Amino acid sequence: MDVEKDFTLTYEVPSKAKKVLTDLKKTAKEAEEIVLATDPDREGEAIAWHLEELLRGKKDTRVFSRVVFHELTKEAINEAFKNPGKIDLDLVDAQQARRVLDRLVGYKLSPLLWKKVMYGLSAGRVQSVAVRLVVERERERQAFNPEEYWGVLGEFQNGSKKKIRAELSEINGKKVEIKNGGQAEEIKAGALKGTYSVISLKKSERKKNPYPPFKTSTLQQAMANIYGFNAKKTMRAAQGLFEKGYITYHRTDSLSLSPHFINTARELIKKRFGETYLPATPNLYKTKSANAQEAHEAIRPTSAHAVPSKSIGLSGDEFKTYSIIWLRSLECQMNPSIYEQTSLSIGSDEGYIFKASGSTVLFEGWLAVSKMVGVKEDEEETSSILPELVEGTKMKLLEIKNEQHFTQPPARYNDASLIKKMEEMGVGRPSTYAPTLSTIQDRKYVLRDGRYFYPNDVAYVVVDLLVEHFPEIVDYNFTALMEESLDKVAEGKVQWVPVIREFYKPFEKKILAKDKELNKRDVTNLGDSEEKCPECGRVLVFKLGKFGKFLSCSGYPDCKYAKPLEPLNGVGGEDEDFGKCDKCEDGIMVLKQGRFGKFLACSNYPKCKNTKPFLDKIGMKCPQCGEGEVVKKKSKWKEFYGCSRYPDCDWKSWKNPMVVASGNGEDSEKESGDSIDSLV
């Protein structure tokens, strides 16, 4: 990319793709016409353009046409081939603009983070905003002060056997707010004195409409909420379903459904449930997005008649994902469910009023279809069915309980809520949600506590640096506006080069200025500790270093005292003795944690810089040479297993050979494009 010449792009074929290209050229050599049928989105359009550029010879006059279909069915493919078109260069430009923009941010800003924070970090126009969301939510939680409050619950009964639990709501016309246990006990004592009866009973009808059909973000949210799938796992299953012809294209933010599918779905609903479940006219849905992903449908089954069951040939994650997609696609074309909502007030002659509510289903509507696949997608919020009562009915107070509560901090983000928040803010597009969440985890910006994200120490440092010095990169509005600009490129309304130029010129100047201005010692300071330096008495501060958080003297560089914070996992610890140092007289070898795993180092560092590799043995001889021990090793990207006699023996494996030998465990996920030799 030549930034001085209007971002002129030069493309090269990666070495790993050359064999595929050779095969394609050989196959296409004798063809009179070449039809390009890549995915129906910006990336697919760009791939088609690249293919034409690579397959067309210098004096090649053959016809290259483009067909688009959103489902791999005979009907859709035949229809697409009846109406071949040309590559949409506006979509290609939009994809190129996105790549250029993201590379300019990543390739210019990431090296600055390496120099000023820690090697190996990355910054990105979308990923950094996602990290900022996680960091700000965690800070909200840290700043949250829980407040105590109490509830007073009464248990009542009339002539029927059914008991009613109701919560104290009012005393003499005033809303109850109980802040401590003493106040709750006083109120409880007063409430026990009176006699109770039903003073109000209101019934109303409430409708609950079905949810719209799935788009990418809502499918990812539903699978996270129902099955605990992360976004990457959901998209992997959806990709398999699309390739096998079970669903339409799964990267979309459209909510429209084809008339053919709607008619088929309505016929099935009428046959299975009857006309009362079917609206008089089809339910149509519109996206709230200003510019939905180009020309897509919502995610739906290619056939409404392919009811999820063992007979359709799916299993595991794909079956679960298909079941949810099929379920939602039928539900969205059904009538609302109808509830009878009952609100009950029980009062005493002392002025104490307890309230309860309940509901009964009058008409299942769209909820009925979930029974066909055994998945409950909607949890009704009401808690109980109340017995039949009338105003004036005498009620016997059986028991009163006081319950202590505390206000809760805002919940951490999980896959579903973070994707939902990004979508609401206009950050990212259907094709970017899953890769973004994977990237911020792979880079260790965010960690997981169960299903929930929380920030690593480095996330605070990087977010604070970007917010203070590069606010445009992590500004929510800027990121959303840039997405809109890319959408306008895709629509042919603006040219991509001016959009990129307007961003890049001031950004480049700022990078150069901040490189000179920023001091690593200031950037990586995480705040003061309560400890004093044992060497000079000054305050120790938390710092972020190459291998994590540590304590450093605030008097640095005059005082170089430093102290590690986090103990090592696994064998021994930093204080375990691994023998005397063979380079100095009084040092001992201790276990340390480095960028590529554990190693042994002299305790007299930095006076003595002797180091040795640490062999993390698993208790098994090398299966190749039979002499060396199998040890855990770590590459820049991930952990693997190798022989302790390397390089004399080059045996290595991604999988634990002890597990493989015992026949337990599952194969690890295949890393596309990464061989173990390249990582080693």
UniProtKB/TrEMBL annotation:
CDD domains: TOP1Ac
Catalytic activity: ATP-independent breakage of single-stranded DNA, followed by passage and rejoining
GO molecular function per UniProt: DNA binding; DNA topoisomerase type I (single strand cut, ATP-independent) activity; zinc ion binding
Entry's family note: Belongs to the type IA topoisomerase family.
Subunit structure: Monomer.
Function in brief: Releases the supercoiling and torsional tension of DNA, which is introduced during the DNA replication and transcription, by transiently cleaving and rejoining one strand of the DNA duplex. Introduces a single-strand break via transesterification at a target site in duplex DNA. The scissile phosphodiester is attacked by the catalytic tyrosine of the enzyme, resulting in the formation of a DNA-(5'-phosphotyrosyl)-enzyme intermediate and the expulsion of a 3'-OH DNA strand. The free DNA strand then undergoes passage around the unbroken strand, thus removing DNA supercoils.
UniProt name for this protein: DNA topoisomerase 1
Species this chain originates from: candidate division WWE3 bacterium GW2011_GWC2_41_23
Taxonomic placement: Bacteria, Katanobacteria
Gene encoding the protein: topA
